[in-house]
Write a structure and sequence with these properties.
This is Glycosyltransferase. By secondary structure, the protein is an alpha/beta fold. Helices cover 45% and strands 16% of the residues.
Length: 394
């Protein structure tokens, strides 16, 4: 890395992993006293977290936070899918003009793809983190899906065939070889899906068990993250509804994460249909830092029953950090990873009957998995390795 560079990190989204990724990069920059300047451009709400990361830190003198105005956020987030890419790209160009960096890292490149091809050229080097490449997935049936797939492939080929990017960091490692074949100019790098780990004491886990009032002799299933229809909660609850009572009595489902009121009302209705035999613990709020890992340490199985999910999922890495097996969708890279690396078990996450069969295995037998493979995955996806990979190539 040329350590005299001025690097600008750009992200208009700040919830979930977006804040975590910025945190990892800022922390690494400060800890390693990197030279040059790091400019963090994101929503104003990140200010408090940024201050905590940088306050009275000797290596933070060359790190700067630049909040994006609320009016600019409203404009880009309120745009249609057809125009948002260009509005995001033009907003990035605005901040490039203001701060004149040597290199910009787009923290969520998926949004910028179309504009990076057809939009105005950037006056400096631009790289991006690519979350959900799906050009190598089997196309779902239907004309609309096929047309959408064709559009995305044309755009991807055009982007990778040009010179608008310097580097593309890809979270889906199974896509890297295919991306490299499409890209004569852009450097493609596999990227860790980073998770910070903590030394959790057994007393912390027992305290959480007591706080959540989890009943004894139940297998604890953790469904963690922003709780919406993509997480497969509805087919999961339908599957639980179809279990016999003696198996329901062996299960505890922990729903942990923020949830919108309308979707919460739907979930509550589904929980009522399951009945009282399954213990359902609701932790409907954002959970951060050390507390996240305590929830994973408490669980027996981690759920990743996502609906047609593209790419990697950080809950798999969090499960690996705590050495807990994963029950995942059999779709895409996530399903391939869990199955090939023996991280747990996969099933058709759209089918309540398929999920029910998997839950029956959880209750009546043990799901085989490799603790050594879980440990290896955790080591390969550390926050330090994530930041090293990025800064070594900018």
């Amino acid at each position: 890395m040329n350590r005299a560079k001025k690097i600008l990190l750009f992200d208009t989204i700040i919830d979930g992993h977006h804040a975590d990724y910025l945190t990892h990069l800022i922390t690494y920059w400060i800890a390693n006293r990197l030279q040059g300047e790091l400019i963090v451009v994101t929503q104003q709400s990140f200010q408090k977290q940024y201050d905590a990361l940088t306050k009275q830190k000797p290596g933070a003198a060359n790190v700067r936070f630049v909040p994006i105005s609320s009016s600019d956020i409203e404009i880009v987030h309120g745009a249609s899918m057809a125009t948002r890419s260009f509005k995001e790209w033009n907003l990035m160009l605005k901040y490039i003009g203001m701060h004149e960096p040597d290199h910009v890292l787009l923290m969520y490149f998926d949004l910028f793809m179309l504009a990076s091809w057809l939009g105005r050229s950037a006056p400096c080097a631009v790289s991006g983190i690519y979350f959900r490449p799906d050009f190598h997935y089997k196309v779902r049936p239907g004309i609309k899906a096929k047309l959408n797939d064709a559009r995305k492939k044309i755009t991807l080929k055009a982007v990778l065939g040009g010179k608008s990017l310097a580097n593309l960091f890809c979270l889906d490692h199974s896509a890297v070889d295919g991306l490299r074949q499409l890209s004569p100019y852009i450097k493609i790098w596999p990227l860790a899906d980073p998770v910070e780990s903590y030394d959790i004491m057994p007393a912390e886990v027992e305290q959480l068990r007591a706080n959540l009032q989890i009943e004894p002799n139940r297998r604890i299933l953790l469904l963690f993250g922003h709780l919406d229809d993509r997480k497969g909660i509805e087919p999961l609850l339908e599957a639980m509804k179809r279990l016999p009572a003696q198996q329901k009595n062996r299960l505890c489902l922990v729903l942990a994460g923020p949830i919108q009121p309308d979707f919460r009302a739907l979930v509550e209705r589904k929980i009522a249909e399951v009945g009282p035999d399954v213990q359902v613990v609701r932790v409907f709020r954002e959970i951060k830092g050390r507390e996240i890992q305590v929830h994973f340490e408490l669980s027996d199985y981690v759920l990743a029953l996502y609906q047609h999910h593209v790419g990697m999922a950080s809950v798999v890495v969090r499960a690996a950090v705590s050495r807990k097996p994963v029950l995942a969708s059999d779709y895409g890279y996530l399903g391939h990873l869990v199955q090939s690396e023996e991280l747990g078990a996969v099933t058709d996450a759209t089918s309540p009957d398929a999920i029910r069969s998997l839950l029956e295995r959880v209750v009546t037998t043990e799901i085989p998995y490799s603790e050594a493979r879980l440990q290896k995955l955790a080591e390969q996806n550390s926050d330090v390795y994530f930041a090293e990979t990025i800064f070594n190539h900018l």
